[in-house]
Amino acid sequence: SGNFLPIMNLDYPLGKLCRYIDEIEDIDVRNIAAGEYYYFTGLLKDATIISEPYLDSENRVNRLSAAMACVFANLCRNHLHLSYFAANVVKKEFNNAFNNNALDEYKAMTVLAAMTFKMQFNIPIDNVPPIDGYIKYLQDGTKLFGYYLMAYRAFIEKDYNRSLGIIDAAVNYNAVVYPVPLIYLYILGSINKISMKKIDDAIVYIDKAWNLAKPDEMYMLFVEHYNFLQGMAEVHLKKVHPDDYVKVVNASKEYNDGWFKIHNYKNKSDVATNLTPKEFTVAMLYSRNWGAKEIAAHMGLSERTIMNYIQIVYEKLHINSKKDLNKYILS
Questions:
Q1: 15-24 pLDDT per residue, tens
Q2: How far is Cα 238 from Cα 80, in angstroms, rounded to an integer?
């Protein structure tokens, strides 16, 4: 099972991830890890070139791992038909695992993969059991990512304290540092804190995530969470890491475009696709009952500017009330 999402289970010195991948002896596992690495660092075409041949591999774990990299990398490239194809590989692996009574270890992998898409894209996938009952069958690094999914579910349910409790327990679970899943956990910690309007605490979490991600340039993990970070990129990253902020915000435009298309198609919903990242951030905060004055203070803008943004959002969405806004924004 060691080749399932191998980067998740690597304890590597920061800044040395590429070298560690090159030293993986099994060529297939090395290629799977390289596909993950290329995605996390924004080398999206390279990620798909090295990962796609494994979508029909005889090794089902390689198929599953490659499919996850291909879904995300192709989504960011706006190659949605290839994202759908890879997502169907995951769905097929999940169904086969449970219909054919596979080993619990492999069932756990398929549950984690299926739940990732269900949570990240809000895509309806039938009969996916909670990861809680399968997390014990995963390796320590992927286990941490499983805890991230559990915490993400609590966040979606707006149970921020429970989400933070899961995050803190996971972070302290093992003395070994697995940077990639820890980055996910710390980013989610920041998202919870900003949702609770605890800005200083949110900065502490996002700094921990950034300090783990920056040495290996893994900024795509922040791109994945750009909308739910609710202005933290503008508030903090832009000020402290301006060059990296530009990378994150530019990649977010591509990621959001694909994300919204998949989400709306699969859910037959109308989440806004025509807003800029900053407009979406203002709209999300406003839909979550932040006042214009609070948003202005949070984002370092004037209240008048925020009201202008809200007016632009209303005009783009052809609405005239906050009640109407909620159906277009993931609040």
A1: 999 999 999 9
A2: 30
Backbone angles phi, psi at 102, to 5 degrees: -65, 170
- Tens digit of pLDDT for each residue in 47-87? 999 999 999 999 999 999 999 999 989 988 888 889 889 98
pLDDT at 267 over 50: no
Would you state the pLDDT for residue 101? 86
Tokens representing residue 213 in the block: 């991600």
DSSP collapsed to 3 states, the chain: CCCCCHHHHCCCCCCCHHHHHHCCCCHHHHHHHHHHHHHHCCCHHHHHHHHHHHHHCCCHHHHHHHHHHHHHHHHHCCCHHHHHHHHHHHHHHHHHHHHCCCCHHHHHHHHHHHHHHHHHHCCCCCCCCCHHHCHHHCCHHHHHHHHHHHHHHHHHCCCHHHHHHHHHHHHCCCCCCCHHHHHHHHHHHHHHHHHCCCHHHHHHHHHHHHHHHHHHCCCHHHHHCCCCCCCHHHHHHHHHCHHHHHHHHHHHHHHHHHHHHHHHHHHCCCCCCCCCHHHHHHHHHHHCCCCHHHHHHHHCCCHHHHHHHHHHHHHHHCCCCHHHHCCCCCC
pLDDT digits (tens, 9 = 90+) for 308-331: 999 999 988 888 888 788 777 755
CB-based contact 37:217 (threshold 8 Å): no
Nearest 10 degrees: Cα torsion 222, 224, 227, 233: 10
Position 257 scores a pLDDT of 67
> Out of 38-42, 115-119, 211-215, which region has the weakest mean confidence (pLDDT)?
115-119
